[in-house]
Amino acid sequence: MKPLIALVGRPNVGKSTLFNRILRQKSAIVDSTPGVTRDRHIMPGEWQGKQFLLMDTGGYCAANDVISSSMIEQTLTAIRDADCVIFLTDVRSGLTYDDLEISKLLQRTFQNKQIFFAVNKVESPQLTIDAESFVSTGFTNPYFLSAKDGSGVADMLDDILESLPESEHTDDDDDTSVKLAIVGRPNVGKSSFVNALLGTNRHIVSDIPGTTRDAIDSRFIRKQQEYVLIDTAGLRKRTKIDAGVEFYSSLRTEKAIERCQVAVVLLDARAGLEKQDMKIINMAEERKKGVLLLVNKWDLIEKDSKTSKVYEDNLRSHMGNLSWIPVLFISALTKKNLYRAIDTAEEISRNRSRKISTSSLNRFLEEALSAVHPSTKSGKELKIKYMTQIDSHWPVFAFFCNNPELVQSNFRKFLEKKLREQFQLDGVPISLRFMEK
Ligand code: GDP
Ligand code: GDP
């Protein structure tokens, strides 16, 4: 799995600027689907051929300008399972009390974690001299940089990537395990689900809301396939810091989803689909991960022969255009459908990496176009000449046509629906690109 680099520092030192600066180097396909939010806190990046995830912890904190103890605690929790930390300060505002507090905490809490200490906004010889004094934090090898103009950033990245674990962590292609993020709101049964699968009680399951646990990845093998369960059960924390709970869940969930191939979203059958569940599903969809929806605690529902059908129809009516997501009814308690869930997740992962030949796609296209002639607003004719699948981690289809601007959304939807009917793409987001040819 890709190593995770956490970016910390008080508000306004330039974390977001550095975040964007570092990620600008990445060569990944950026999805151009309209409406994709840019409000992300964990993003994949690449430097000198090495891949990593960068986490901006500040995005969650910047709302208030004052560093509170709970804010610091939240930041610490967020970076606990990062592989290394960039601690950013700002030469123009000088070292502040907050900087010193953060540095003390980092030094105290993470004695074994590599911390890259950086002074930002160093853009002149005088500022370089000023920045020298930042060693009083106790971090003796500061990087001087400017997130704005980019100076110094490359040198720091070289050192960071050098310090991170080699290939087995960075080379996704050699790793054939299926990575599943087990996500969902607190108390839906994530730990119980993981425990039932692993057949151990390594994870402590508890009725007490707010029990502190740490997330651990678990591996198991089924039918010769290795699985990694990326568990977010540790997201429940002391209720004392109420405001923090949402923060923990979001960040943990985001982190787990970023690292998975398939997001396994658990619901509590009694609660149904709530806003927070949709947020989690959307998080996975936006990142082009596979999604499987599991309605857990099905043992608690009084049923007749129609119950699951009615329940599913109701769920789907609230899921908008996410009808491609498979839904299963399970019970972590009675173990009903647990292995079916895993096998479905495996199938979704296979669908996600499915490569469809150009000749099959063009046969498909010919048929689809003979059924429906694309209408256009302007009366100009849209001509699609051929299509192909673009190499990517999820299915991306390119359509070459006379003028991409003539493509209307209902025609796009029609093509997506037909593609899903024809090829096995259950549980995976797909992207359609229209290009001029
Ligand atoms: P965050 O709150 O830590 O995420 O900080 P931001 O990235 O939002 O930056 C805070 C302010 O500092 C903004 O006005 C940025 O334009 C500015 N800033 C960020 N990096 C630099 C830098 O390298 N040099 C200078 N001069 N300004 C910077
Ligand atoms: P998590 O916070 O999502 O990890 O949820 P837990 O696994 O800790 O489960 C919360 C509570 O729901 C515990 O009391 C579990 O025993 C209970 N629970 C979990 N799964 C099931 C299930 O399938 N059926 C029933 N009846 N209870 C369950």
UniProtKB/TrEMBL annotation:
Binding positions (GTP 2): 184-191, 231-235, 296-299
Gene3D superfamilies reported for this sequence = 3.30.300.20, P-loop containing nucleotide triphosphate hydrolases (3.40.50.300)
Q: Extract the SUPFAM superfamilies matched here.
A: P-loop containing nucleoside triphosphate hydrolases
Give all residue intervals belonging to the EngA-type G domain.
3-168, 178-353
Which Gene Ontology molecular function entries are recorded, alphabetically?
GTP binding; ribosome binding
GO biological process, any = ribosome biogenesis
Q: Where do the annotations place GTP 1 binding?
A: 9-16, 56-60, 120-123
Q: Does the keyword DNA-binding apply?
A: no
* Keyword annotations from UniProtKB, A to Z: GTP-binding, Nucleotide-binding, Repeat, Ribosome biogenesis
User: Do the record's keywords include Lyase?
Assistant: no
Instruction: Fetch the PANTHER family from UniProt.
Output: GTPASE DER (PTHR43834:SF6)
Membership in a protein family: Belongs to the TRAFAC class TrmE-Era-EngA-EngB-Septin-like GTPase superfamily. EngA (Der) GTPase family.
- Its job: GTPase that plays an essential role in the late steps of ribosome biogenesis.
Assembly behavior: Associates with the 50S ribosomal subunit.
Official protein name in the record: GTPase Der
* Natural source organism: Chlorobium limicola
